[in-house]
Amino acid sequence: MTAFNRKETAEKLRNAVEILSKNDSYSAICHKHYIGEPSISMEKLDMIVKKIREIIFPGFFDNNTLDPVAVHYYMGVYTDELFDMLSEQILAGLCFACKERKDSELHLMDEMVYANDIAADFISTLPEMRRILSTDVEATFLGDPAAQSWSEVIFCYPTIKAISSYRIAHALLGLKVPIIPRIITEMAHSETGIDIHPRAEIGESFSIDHGTGTVIGATCIIGKKVKLYQGVTLGAKNFPMDENGNPIKGIPRHPIIEDNVVIYAQATILGRVTIGHESVIGGNVWVTHDVPPNSTLVQFKPKWQQFADGAGI
Amino acid sequence: MTAFNRKETAEKLRNAVEILSKNDSYSAICHKHYIGEPSISMEKLDMIVKKIREIIFPGFFDNNTLDPVAVHYYMGVYTDELFDMLSEQILAGLCFACKERKDSELHLMDEMVYANDIAADFISTLPEMRRILSTDVEATFLGDPAAQSWSEVIFCYPTIKAISSYRIAHALLGLKVPIIPRIITEMAHSETGIDIHPRAEIGESFSIDHGTGTVIGATCIIGKKVKLYQGVTLGAKNFPMDENGNPIKGIPRHPIIEDNVVIYAQATILGRVTIGHESVIGGNVWVTHDVPPNSTLVQFKPKWQQFADGAGI
Amino acid sequence: MTAFNRKETAEKLRNAVEILSKNDSYSAICHKHYIGEPSISMEKLDMIVKKIREIIFPGFFDNNTLDPVAVHYYMGVYTDELFDMLSEQILAGLCFACKERKDSELHLMDEMVYANDIAADFISTLPEMRRILSTDVEATFLGDPAAQSWSEVIFCYPTIKAISSYRIAHALLGLKVPIIPRIITEMAHSETGIDIHPRAEIGESFSIDHGTGTVIGATCIIGKKVKLYQGVTLGAKNFPMDENGNPIKGIPRHPIIEDNVVIYAQATILGRVTIGHESVIGGNVWVTHDVPPNSTLVQFKPKWQQFADGAGI
Amino acid sequence: MTAFNRKETAEKLRNAVEILSKNDSYSAICHKHYIGEPSISMEKLDMIVKKIREIIFPGFFDNNTLDPVAVHYYMGVYTDELFDMLSEQILAGLCFACKERKDSELHLMDEMVYANDIAADFISTLPEMRRILSTDVEATFLGDPAAQSWSEVIFCYPTIKAISSYRIAHALLGLKVPIIPRIITEMAHSETGIDIHPRAEIGESFSIDHGTGTVIGATCIIGKKVKLYQGVTLGAKNFPMDENGNPIKGIPRHPIIEDNVVIYAQATILGRVTIGHESVIGGNVWVTHDVPPNSTLVQFKPKWQQFADGAGI
Amino acid sequence: MTAFNRKETAEKLRNAVEILSKNDSYSAICHKHYIGEPSISMEKLDMIVKKIREIIFPGFFDNNTLDPVAVHYYMGVYTDELFDMLSEQILAGLCFACKERKDSELHLMDEMVYANDIAADFISTLPEMRRILSTDVEATFLGDPAAQSWSEVIFCYPTIKAISSYRIAHALLGLKVPIIPRIITEMAHSETGIDIHPRAEIGESFSIDHGTGTVIGATCIIGKKVKLYQGVTLGAKNFPMDENGNPIKGIPRHPIIEDNVVIYAQATILGRVTIGHESVIGGNVWVTHDVPPNSTLVQFKPKWQQFADGAGI
Amino acid sequence: MTAFNRKETAEKLRNAVEILSKNDSYSAICHKHYIGEPSISMEKLDMIVKKIREIIFPGFFDNNTLDPVAVHYYMGVYTDELFDMLSEQILAGLCFACKERKDSELHLMDEMVYANDIAADFISTLPEMRRILSTDVEATFLGDPAAQSWSEVIFCYPTIKAISSYRIAHALLGLKVPIIPRIITEMAHSETGIDIHPRAEIGESFSIDHGTGTVIGATCIIGKKVKLYQGVTLGAKNFPMDENGNPIKGIPRHPIIEDNVVIYAQATILGRVTIGHESVIGGNVWVTHDVPPNSTLVQFKPKWQQFADGAGI
After folding, report:
1. Which residues of chain B lie closer than 8 angstroms to D70, CB-CB?
2. How far apart are CA F41 and CA A122, in angstroms?
3. Of D91, A33, A99, E31, which Cα lies nearest the Cα of B70?
4. pLDDT, tens digit, 9 for 90 and up, residues C103-138
5. In this structure, are F173 and F124 located in the same domain?
6. Are residues F169 and F204 in the same domain?
7. C2 within a domain of the structure (yes/no)
8. Residues A80-131: pLDDT tens digits?
9. Among A121, A305, B86, D60, which is most buried by a count of CB atoms within 10 Å?
10. What distances in angstroms separate CA F111 from CA E151, F105, F123, one per listed residue?
11. Best residue in F1, F4, F107 to probe B by mutation, most B CBs within 10 Å?
């Protein structure tokens, strides 16, 4: 504090400190660490996601060459680095989620081994993840007349960022990693405006055009070759509470979107409804019931009103 | 410049420099500094917001322990650091806003004292701010079946970022700090896609799900236990101009949302209308009139059209 | 790798490396560099955009003074620095786009000269760009009763970030710079949620309020004094495919918005339709046909439903 | 590699890689890590030394105030932060030194506890370390007519950096921390040119003027109020080898300097000799025998030679 | 603290904190800040020295071009930036030195003006400083057969770093700036091992070869075309104390070196003696009396001793 | 500039700028860049040296594992990265040295190829360099009773930094790389106080204890198993001038040190003299003539003087 040493100012600060330090002020919203436990780090998770993108799309986000010998070296090193970083953050996630622990020391070592196993299992999925993301790149390119090349799509389309983060997070969730998957998709949400819950199931050749404001809920099931536009909501209509007034977790409450569906901007689809394959949902439409295959839904034609002065609405 | 020293290139650059340096080219869109005045800094404001979050939610965004003795130390130091950083940026805001000053030296010292007073008053509000933010965390947790714990909500839900930034900015605005509050909410807007004007009044237990595209205007008044979804607009319908054709500032022109209201995705509510308590506003709905308490508004059921070839819309 | 040296883990990693290193795994989604070619760098492009903003709006984003002699020096140095940085990134863009090159060395020198020429031509457009952006600032200020001053608008309104990035990208695209313009507008998209394609034509005195989710497509033509709100889509309805099933590039497929039009939040206008001058398009409206001048379009009044228990939708 | 893809270049690189990867090429000079072991980090050790200086000399190297309440907070927080950082690096040092470990997991937890104990013991010595360093500051001030104030001495005299790093390292060595003490004094050596072995014993009120090139060996014992100048060597004359030709470790082989001795620039004192109290050793003198108390040693007066041309030596 | 929460550890830390927080523990070695006073910053002083080198030696340490128009811009901007940074650090130095102040607010503004005046006066000396440093560069080049070009000397010889830092510090000291000059020469001391007191007077065409360990005391007067080697000490023999036993400040106590003198490695010259022009002082010599012009001093020829076993000394 | 806009200050700055911008003020000490030429960068050279140390000493300065498969990957990637960085800086060195160029574009491409060739040749020497540095590590360990292990020597002994930088620089000089070798050894000189000219020839099993102030001149030839202490100068006595008074470059003028010689602290050996094998040179001795093999040189025993008051020297 470099203040004028005025008594009044100092007193205000000291009072605030006293209250803020009281256990009943902070006990409900604080978080405890234990010794040796790594912390969840946004910076490290960001590095992890970037490292995976470097592995998936060689030459785009690093400077490695495509000389076959060198690719081999780089894949080896990137994988090794990823294994280390990911093991640590998985461990951090396990610690964050663990609440009831009594003997933290004993478990820490076990969890470290467990985190290593998960990280290795995750890395085993990367070749298949690369294949699926290739289909997403292709679908994005085909779906946008403004796209010049696959390279442009990989390099600067937000949809590729959002989908690759989702596929990474989904794989980690499948390996039962707590909290980390959610953070990874929220980071992509912040960057792209696209909010995909890591628990959603999404088929290959998926694309989202523009994307800002699109929301895909936790229990969505999306088929192949589905295309969404910006502002599309695949949400829950409402959800049952338990006897304590808390929402019941894990009930299917988001839409099923079958293969080859297109959903235009700002459309809102709520609840466990099914949009049949090959359907087209128009922009701004609000859907809360099933839609049969091959359907096309559009909004009512807007009513025109001519105001005398053209000013108000 | 490391160009080929080709005359033509150099000439183009020099011509541009000459025009850009002319007073009548830049006079309308430039900004003057005076000696000793600190500059508004996005980096420092970001640090200030993070420091406040560290104070509010101990152990989440720092590594301090919850040993009661140490918490006391940390609250003391964080508060002291916050006081310094905040005083400087408040002073920067006062300088930015000040236009007509003639004798900058004399006033600078007075404004420094004034900035210190404001910073101390702001810090005095932190205990109450912590209490209110706890209710927002609780509301967010209860409102999302996908949320696993309060910790997850605090750590990675964008709504907590947006609401805490709003509550900080709102408190600063109440202390008559110029421009800084707006910058703080715009920083949260950029990060979360949620745009809350710092002048809005928002009650406790507030939550926004997903949030991208949600807008809350400057003269909104929102009650307790209100829940919004993504893409909700609480905006102005239109606004009266003065005799010079400039908008008249400060007139109430945004909605009043009473207690326990839920507003679903993409709904648009415009003008100084009142949405009565316990009401539910459906997604994509456009509202410009009062809604009585306990109402439920939904969009017309969409008209279905079956196209022969399934291609057009 | 700092693992437990357990055979199983090591084997999993090695297997993944082997597959990821196979040419047919990565050949479709990799990118090749050649010697001496600079890489496209997000960090450098960000610095370029910031440097241009420093030139356009003196005193806001740097600390230079407005002493006329010093302004001259600063404009000279900023321009010189910009010329260097921009030449390099334009060259990087030319290299990225170039696919069929056989003799990379020979062409590199020619492309370097070409990149310098483009950079100089771009800098020649800055004085006019400053003039147009001044009209955008003015329009934003007049259109928002919450705005206190031009300074506030320049300093913290996301719309100014989005529009200035668009005008920079549009100028570069007009000089035939590949990929870079798209990256610049995507960077602004990520920061502001406003997605303006650099190929769109936008007149002066343009403003977007709040902006999150607004999309302006590649072949849009927008007149003077147009104002948009958040979530507005100026998109394509659909697009013809060529005989191979690929979208035909470059066909006009987005709306024409004439002078003095206002389009409210979440409105969706699709296809090559014309919104006549002085028209007002209401929020959440979906438009796929021409609208004559001086029109006002609003959504149907929503149907009210009173539920017994106020809970469901 | 972004080379011209010329076969010859690629082959050279591949050959080098093959040899460098052979076990017998690197086995003698490589270092193994085990899982969960922290690495020794120069950056963190530098932060640790700076943090200790902040604790010892309040207000010089941080911005805390001397308001008694705030000092308490800061001492609490700095100590807490130091405890964490130091525990980790002590553990890293223990791991570095440990060679024969078979079951790394079991020991790691024990060593973590052990590192914590050492860190706490070290922190217990800080009050006494502050007192002794105060005497060093006073001695430096009194010994240099060019010094303006204690503040100047603390803030910018290299001797204070070197002595404080030595006293920190010496205390850690006394607590049996491996390798870290040596690194801390080598960091000060690099910064100041003063090379003090952490094992040396040095009394209070110690000062070194200018200091570059001064060396104080591992088994030196230095009394109170001793002053050295630059280039002074307190070294070993020679040392006995064991039957394998390796130097026998730990034998006293460096000088004992008693109280109130002054040793001028470039003097060299070698072997386990004693310089008696109150003695003065002149510059450039080379001493390998005991010197009784109250002695003054100077170099022979130089021989003058007048060269005809004044050019050669 | 993330310890095992063991009582004993916590108690040790708390005890240390209590003692370290006692006023009589820290009162002699602490430093007070007042509001609005900038802090002395090593980082900023380093930037200042680098900025001055960029001004003095155009094109070596920046990327500006030598196109005469651009040089003008860069000199203008660098000077403007230097003026700002330097004014702030001069003010920081004035505040650091000021002890007895009662009414800090009143004086701060006056000192700010004063700091600006000094900064402007300093900048006025830069053209002459460039001229003198050119003679130092030339002398260094001529004196070292290993030097390939002036460029190499400017770019990588430590002597140029040490001498330019000295000349900067000396000019600031002449303008009565407290403490900053000493810090600047100590920074160069740390980097080069050359310790030149800013108060020394040094003529043009000065050079130091290798330089590590060379010391030039505060009251030295050095003529033109003097050349020193590494390890040379121009120091004080001893100094009178006042009645309180404190050294009397400001008495001439270091050598005068006349024009065209060469002093070889490790030579030590102590006290207010004069080394006459055109003299050569051999390596390792220790001089405490005047040396007439055109003299050559060398050390006695060393005595040879042949040991039987060749091992000891 | 944020000054008080006082005319006088502004005028001083403008005057300085005018003079500093005059061609005859800066023409002798400026440096020209051409388009496309990389700049020499201290940061990049520091990264290059660190990368080479990572290759030479696996596991000390990085985190790679010693699993044989992974070592292979890392060696491949490090080598590839080194090749890129080194090629660029070699090219920068070639450009720096080139003065008379007329057609910079044409040559740039050729020099790029040439730089690649040199970089590849340098990498081919790394296996042998690793072997020699191993002998230096061993010699350092054997020569210092305070050393605990090879690991400690590699990790924190300044001599290993200085010698490895020398061996790198020497290899680059052998490949005719201009200026870069000198910068690399000067960087080590700054860090360690040890100044080894890259042109010197130094045999294996070389060590320097403490090292500060040791100088090894450009034409020195040093045999195997030589050990030096701090402050040793292997310098030139004087050097012949050509008819223009410039030193003649490239003449042998520094000592030859044969195998198994030990030279103690502060000894100075000047001129093209030979110190015969197995000799021991005592501290502070000054040698300008040949010394036969198996000799031991020591300084005269110092003369003792007893002063009455023990104060002066």
Report:
1. 76-77, 80
2. 40
3. A33
4. 455 567 788 889 999 999 999 999 999 999 999 999
5. yes
6. no
7. no
8. 999 999 999 999 999 888 764 554 555 677 888 899 999 999 999 999 999 9
9. B86
10. 20, 10, 18
11. F4
A158/C contact by beta carbon, under 8 A:
yes
Number of domains in chain B: 2
Same domain for F182 and F301: no
Cβ separation D80–B64 shorter than 8 A? yes
Query: How many other CB atoms are there within 10 angstroms of residue E68's CB atom?
Result: 10
* C64, C65, C76 member nearest E70 (Cβ): C76
For D2, name the nearest residue in chain C, comparing CA atoms only.
C35
Query: What number is the average pLDDT over the span B238-263?
Result: 85
Cβ-Cβ contacts under 8 Å for E234 (sequence gap 6 or more)? E215, E216, E217, E220, E222, E254, E255, E257, E269
Considering only CA atoms, which of D268, F238, D301 is closest in space to residue E298?
D301
Q: What is the pLDDT of residue A113?
A: 87
Q: Which amino acid is at A226?
A: V
Whether the predicted pLDDT of E215 surpasses 50: yes
Q: Is the pLDDT of residue F92 over 80?
A: yes
| Residues F160, F51 within the same domain | yes
Q: With CB atoms and an 8 Å threshold, state whether B76 touches D65.
A: no
Residues B134 and B234 in one domain: no
- Residue A124 and residue A69 share a domain: yes
Which pLDDT does position D311 carry in this prediction?
36
Q: In terms of DSSP bridges, do strands E233-235 and E215-216 run parallel, antiparallel, or are they unpaired?
A: parallel
**pLDDT (mean) for C152-171:** 96
Q: Do D310 and E215 touch (CB under 8 A)?
A: no
How far, in whole angstroms, is CA F207 from its chain's centroid? 15
Domain of residue E266, residue span: 200-240+247-313
Helix and strand numbers (H, E) in chain A are 9, 15
B240 burial type by CB count under 10 A (0-12 exposed, 13-18 middle, 19+ buried): exposed
Q: Which residue has the higher pLDDT, A235 or F35?
A: A235
Q: Tell me if B243 is assigned to some domain.
A: no
Q: Is the pTM of this model over 0.90?
A: yes
How many angstroms separate the CA atoms of B304 and D174, rounded? Answer: 84
Question: Does one domain contain both A41 and A169?
Answer: yes
Chain B hits for A250, CB-CB cut-off 8 Å, are 145
Size of chain D in residues: 313
Copy the structure tokens of residue C257.
Answer: 């918005």
Q: CB-CB: which of D3, D34, D35 is closest to C35?
A: D3
Q: What is the ipTM of this complex?
A: 0.90
D102 pLDDT exceeds 60?
no
Chain B residues whose beta carbon lies within 8 Å of the beta carbon of residue E67: 1, 5, 10
pLDDT digits (tens, 9 = 90+) for E60-88: 877 666 677 888 999 999 999 999 999 99
**Best mutation target, B35, B73, B94, to test chain E (most E CBs within 10 A):** B35
Q: What is the rounded CA–CA span in Å between residue C281 and residue C268?
A: 9
Vertex B176: Cα angle to B175 and B181 (nearest 5): 90
